[in-house]
Amino acid sequence: MARYGAAIFDVFGTVVDWRSGVATEVSRMYEAKGLDVDAEAFADEWRGEYQPAMNKIRSGNRGYVALDTLHRENLEVVLTRRDQLGLFSNDELAELNHAWEKLPPWEDAPQGLADLKQVMPVAPCSNGSIALMTRLARFGGLSWDCVVGAEIAQGYKPDPKVYQRSAAALGFAPDEVVMVATHNNDLAAARDAGLATAYFPRPDELGVGVKTELVPAQDWDVIAKNMIDLAQKLA
Amino acid sequence: MARYGAAIFDVFGTVVDWRSGVATEVSRMYEAKGLDVDAEAFADEWRGEYQPAMNKIRSGNRGYVALDTLHRENLEVVLTRRDQLGLFSNDELAELNHAWEKLPPWEDAPQGLADLKQVMPVAPCSNGSIALMTRLARFGGLSWDCVVGAEIAQGYKPDPKVYQRSAAALGFAPDEVVMVATHNNDLAAARDAGLATAYFPRPDELGVGVKTELVPAQDWDVIAKNMIDLAQKLA
After folding, report:
1. Are the beta carbons of B144 and A146 separated by less than 8 Å?
2. What tens digit of pLDDT does each residue of B164-217 get?
3. Which of A147, A151, A152, A166 to mutate to test the interface with B (most CBs of B within 10 A)?
4. SS3 of A123, please?
């Protein structure tokens, strides 16, 4: 019998490579206009607006809106700062915003997830919406059982209600569910919310050779090399 | 290109055979005590409490609680009426309530769903909870993309918000999503809520030879023979 009732996953950075995926779409959209862009820098700048945008909701200064909407607003912030908002039509902005639905999984993710799904239910516990998670899964061949996370909790990680509502939605108490992430702060919040925790490193999340979180910051319940190894350790 | 952005499904009766599944578990639990029971009649009586229990929530007289809780309360109603509530321990009642997570799919459902998933996202839009839908899917080999329906809408069909929130959670306008059901009243409510509709008959839902809804009551957008045929018609 498996050690946990279900495994829930951080997605951006842990399961999919958001940076190269977003950069690919940014490149494509700029190239179509015959314009140069440092697409990786654009991706980093866009992602840089992610936490500040969610903070307004975490603090209660704004009601819950889906991450898709925040991504779109943040895109306009970045383009305005670059004095390039007028480059793209409304439809093109919408198309560019769909970049977040076309992120390649890390190489081990589809197989690791399929392996783990044989053992227990698996679901994203991401700040992304149900629509975003569903489209990402179809794009990358990720075999989730269902989608939990921000939208069903109407809030954003690391708010404890996101982890707790996600466990409850799967029919389990918090300590019966393991939260999987490559980010130590996500796991710290999950542990504070009562969940078990599992970590593996993603050394290339911020670009090859760019420093990221390579070591567990606490004695997480499971420490793995990647998602294939995780599936073996959780079996 | 497919005609709709996504397909959402009624589950009890449309995708799975709730009556024989519940009866199997009821038989097993009574036999373990050396007692006779008409398990199909028990299943019908248990299901008979389904609509009245949801009506309290639809009318606003009770806040949303998951169907799992209503099933458990209804089980106690049925057993009390039979003067048999004392037969089962609390753990046994919980085990019996899990009958709703062990319902066999109709024969064409797993393949039909897998076929349709190649074409568009598929999700249950049931009055069952996320946990219940996830467990049913794992039990029966049903390959959903995600789970929408009652829990994300915090209400029960035929409340229009259940259909509308489900479409929105998939990232679509109501008329971009097709609601699939064998029950004409479910489709009528979905149509009123702005969704497209698809119907096929399940002649044995209430038992072999028992009269059920065999014909479409309106000119539904798609009328199919079963889920394999539906997948072909929606492709």
Report:
1. yes
2. 999 999 999 999 999 999 999 999 999 999 999 999 999 888 888 777 778 899
3. A147
4. strand
Residue of A nearest to B142 (CA): A145
Q: What is the full DSSP assignment across A138-203?
A: HHHT---S--EEHHHHTS-TTSHHHHHHHHHHTT--GGGEEEEES-HHHHHHHHHTT-EEEE---T
> Would you state the CATH architecture of domain B18-101?
Orthogonal Bundle (1.10)
Q: What is the pLDDT of residues A118-131, one digit of tens each?
A: 999 999 999 999 99
Longest dimension (CA), chain B: 57
Question: Do residue A147 and residue B151 have CB atoms under 8 angstroms apart?
Answer: no
How many secondary structure helices (H) and strands (E) does chain B include?
11, 6
pTM of the full structure:
0.96
Which tokens belong to B44? 């019908």
CB B5 within 8 A of CB B120: yes
Superfamily of domain B6-17+103-234: HAD superfamily/HAD-like (3.40.50.1000)
